[in-house]
Amino acid sequence: MKIAVLNECFLNENHLKRLKALGDVEIFNDTTTEEQAIERLKGVDVAIWDGFICAPTAKILETTNTLKLIVLPHTGYFMVDLETANKKGVKVANAPGFSKEAVAEMVIGLMFAVNRKIPLMDRDMRENPFESDPGNKEMQDRYWGFDIKGKTMGILGLGRIGSTVATLALGIGMKVIANNRSPKTMDGVEMMSKEEVLKKADVVSINVTSGAETEQFISEEELSLMRPAAILINVDQGKMVDTEALYKALSKNKIAGAGLDQVVGLTKDHPILKLDNVVFTPHAGSSTNESFRENLPELVVSAVEGFVGGTSKNLIN
């Protein structure tokens, strides 16, 4: 059996030893083009393949004659041409939940950062150190937020990450309401429609599965349902939110603020970057040592071992 690692996925010596016990292993760290993938997949049975760096397209998959399994070192799989994979008899596995704790904690972190204006105060302090004056109306307007305890967290998508957000929110004294596209229940969480969540929540967290059906999941219509004092948190794919509609809502104070881990169409001169009521992070919600150095490689190697041993794990087709 031939196993190809097409891109860096944080495999340590122990992980590589386990893979080498299954067959010949060839490692590449820079597969970015279709041409490179086509060449490197020749004679390969199993490919550990970062679809965000080089998508498993129909063009690539059509050229594979020995490939039996693709293991994605990430959760999302919307970039995989599953129709062609199925036609070629190629199974695809992902790494579900490898960063659920990290991403859920990022939701909570962004919520506090936006609500309490932490980045704004930090920036102002660096420019000209000062002491907060509670009696100063200008400071009240610029820096004050609300108590999180007792407020309502609205979660759109109660999967692995969404349910972890719910657990954390409940732990800090929030009421939690949620919507899931398929029927689901969770202790302490009140389920309701997407529209009701948007209308009732003080903080809205987007945690739905990425895909064509969730593009612009939050548009002008959804934003119009939110409270003027509400905060939107998106640690999912940027394309789930209509950037222009969000900018309009934020700049006109239709909603109070947003915490965004990814933004579609963002350029260095986009006006949303000038807003003080938005906190940005560079799609780093999953970026912890545990996520990438422990959980992810274990899921990847286990998927290969399971497939070879006849007990496949985390298959999506």
Structural class: alpha/beta
What kind of sheet is the major sheet? 7 strands, parallel
CATH topology of the largest domain: Rossmann fold
- Structural Rg: 22 Å
The stretches of 5 or more residues where confidence is low (pLDDT under 50) are none
Q: What top-tier CATH class of the largest domain fits best?
A: Alpha Beta
Number of helices: 12
Q: Mean pLDDT, rounded to whole units? A: 95
For the termini, the CA-CA separation is 22 Å
The tally of beta strands, per DSSP, is: 12
For the biggest β-sheet, the strand order reads 8-7-6-9-10-11-12
CATH architecture of the largest domain: 3-Layer(aba) Sandwich
> Per DSSP, what share of the residues sits in E-state strands of 2 or more residues?
5-15%
Give the helix level as a range of percent.
Answer: 25-40%
Count of the separate structural domains: 2
- Shape call: elongated
> Mind telling me the CATH superfamily name of the largest domain?
NAD(P)-binding Rossmann-like Domain
Describe the fold and architecture.
The protein is an alpha/beta fold. It folds into 2 domains: 2-96 and 289-309, NAD(P)-binding Rossmann-like Domain (Rossmann fold, 3-Layer(aba) Sandwich); 100-280, Rossmann fold (3-Layer(aba) Sandwich). It has helices at residues 13-20, 34-40, 58-61, 82-88, 100-115, 118-127, 137-143, 160-171, 194-200, 220-225, 243-251, 289-309, and strands spanning 2-5, 24-27, 46-48, 69-71, 91-93, 152-156, 175-179, 189-191, 203-206, 231-234, 257-260, 278-280. Strands 8-7-6-9-10-11-12 form a 7-stranded parallel sheet, sandwiched between helices. Strands 2-1-3-4-5 form a 5-stranded parallel sheet, with helices on both faces. Helix 1 packs parallel to helix 12. The longest helix is centred in the C-terminal third of the chain and has 21 residues, at 289-309.
